[in-house]
Amino acid sequence: MCGIAGIVAPSSGGPVEEAEIRSMCTVMTHRGPDDQGILAGKGIGLGMRRLSIIDVAGGHQPIHNEDRSIWIVFNGEIYNFLELRQELLKAGHHF
């Protein structure tokens, strides 16, 4: 089972400290011993611990869109990812 952590601070708009997200992830290392990903920036911090089941090499998170304006961490599998990937490629997205 993976673990997800985060801080949203829209009212202050100030930066979320990476050390704070890293600390949150360290506490839940037992939930995902295989990988850790962190994003810390203005008003938002995301962290995740990963237990690798499939896509061991390519499943690092957080993930983002082409222009890095949208970031996400999530737990679970997208079972129809092959079909969705083809649709997104046809729509002009890049992986």
Notable features of this structure?
alpha+beta, Glutamine Phosphoribosylpyrophosphate, subunit 1, domain 1, 3-stranded antiparallel sheet, two-stranded antiparallel ribbon, 2 helices
Helix and strand layout, with pairings?
Layout: E1 3-8, H1 18-27, E2 35-41, E3 44-50, E4 63-64, E5 71-72, H2 81-90
Antiparallel strand pairs: 1-3, 2-3, 4-5
pLDDT under 50 segments (min length 5)? none
CATH topology: Glutamine Phosphoribosylpyrophosphate, subunit 1, domain 1
Q: Roughly what percent helix?
A: 10-25%
Order of helices and strands, N to C? EHEEEEH
The count of helical stretches stands at 2
> Gap between N and C termini, in Å?
26 Å
What features would you describe in this structure?
It is a single chain. The protein has 95 residues and is α+β, with helices and mostly antiparallel strands. It contains 2 helices and 5 strands, in the order βαββββα. The protein has one domain (3-90): Glutamine Phosphoribosylpyrophosphate, subunit 1, domain 1, CATH 3.60.20.10. Strands 1-3-2 form a 3-stranded antiparallel β-sheet, covered by helices on one side. A hairpin with a 6-residue loop joins strand 4 and strand 5. The radius of gyration is 15 Å and the shape is flat.
Could you give a quick summary of the protein structure above?
The protein is of the alpha+beta class. 21% of the residues lie in helices and 25% in strands. It has one domain (3-90): Aminohydrolase, N-terminal nucleophile (Ntn) domain (Glutamine Phosphoribosylpyrophosphate, subunit 1, domain 1).
